[in-house]
Design goal:
By secondary structure, the chain is mostly helical. It has two domains: 190 residues, no CATH class; 119 residues, no CATH class. The chain has ten helices and five strands; from the N terminus they run ααααααββααααβββ. The protein has a three-stranded antiparallel sheet with strand order 3-4-5, covered by helices on one side. It has a two-stranded antiparallel ribbon with strand order 1-2.
Length: 315
């Protein structure tokens, strides 16, 4: 059940982070990113029109995001100089009657505030369309030996390809001019019917065939694979080999910004009956046993009998 997953996040997420996640950053980020996506997809249906459950959903998602953010910053320390892209102000509308829920919320708010305070004022949003020398992808590219080498390899391969293309063009141009020279020495072929007294152009005319052959000569254009602008070039190379933890963090953060940080109509509905049991709602939606412990070391989140993601539990 969703309540089981929410309880696991509340009670065991930090233990999981300090256990499995250490030394498995990319795999842990994959699990958290998949968890955020799968959990949000399930609760969008299961908690529709239920402001209290929606509040718990937001709290759970934000704790998952906070864990993901920590791992992403550990993997890409440069990210700490940029805004977390979330503002804690949207959390003030949550309906959290229990003290421990409000304590968890306060911890999240403080974490976001600390992350935002640590960000440099000159650092633009990672979602900004404008590319400057302070853009995350540009800054990361300039400090990453692997990406710098990748750019050199791409440029080197492109230089070789362009030289080969020039040779191909010169050869094609020579063949074209040779064809024109041959055409100038030729005459069209005609077919004559002496008895009927008429002459017409032969449809199998060798000169016209040669003209058509020359006209259809072509060569594929060689396009330089990278932009000329050094900032755009850095951004493109970065995306070609974007660090996986950062990519997962960026996708999850964008999903939260789009789906949770916008005005939440579901949270303005009439409060549900506090005595209502979640287990009465979920079976009607065919969403029972969404969270299931599949072994002593793994826990899985399901959506309509499909596994959304599996988390490895620390031993």
């Amino acid at each position: 059940m969703l309540a089981d997953f929410e309880r696991w996040v509340m009670e065991s997420l930090n233990r999981w982070l300090s256990g499995f996640a250490i030394g498995n950053l990319t795999e842990a980020c994959n699990a958290l990113g998949g968890g955020i996506q799968g959990y949000m997809e399930v609760t969008t249906v299961a908690y529709q029109g239920n402001p209290e459950r929606n509040s718990i959903m937001v709290l759970t998602v934000m704790e998952l995001w906070m864990a993901l953010d920590k791992l992403a910053v550990d993997s890409c320390p440069l990210l700490s100089k940029y805004s977390p892209e979330l503002n804690e102000s949207f959390l003030c509308v949550l309906l959290l009657p229990q003290g421990q829920q409000r304590s968890r919320l306060s911890f999240i708010e403080n974490y976001i505030e600390q992350r935002r305070s640590a960000a440099l004022l000159t650092s633009p949003s990672v979602f900004s369309k404008d590319i400057t020398k302070h853009t995350f992808s540009v800054w990361y590219f300039q400090s990453c030996v692997d990406l710098l080498q990748l750019e050199k390899n791409i440029s080197s391969d492109a230089t070789i390809a362009r030289k080969n293309k020039i040779v191909e063009f010169d050869q094609g141009e020579a063949e074209y001019h040779n064809a024109l020279a041959i055409i100038r020495t030729m005459r069209c072929d005609y077919f004559t019917r002496w008895r009927e007294g008429w002459t017409r152009h032969d449809r199998y005319c060798r000169k016209c065939a040669k003209v058509e052959e020359a006209d259809t000569m072509k060569i594929e254009v060689h396009g330089w694979p990278l932009p000329d602008d050094p900032l755009l070039k850095a951004a493109v190379v970065f995306e070609l080999r974007c660090p996986r933890p950062f990519a997962i963090w960026r996708e999850a953060t964008f999903r939260i910004r789009n789906n949770l940080c916008a005005p939440m109509n579901t949270l303005t509905c009439s409060p549900c009956d506090p005595s209502e049991n979640l287990s009465k709602t979920i079976p009607a939606l065919n969403l029972t046993r969404r969270l299931q412990t599949i072994s002593s070391e793994h826990i899985a989140l399901y959506l309509d009998d499909q596994v959304i993601f599996i988390i490895s539990l620390p031993l």
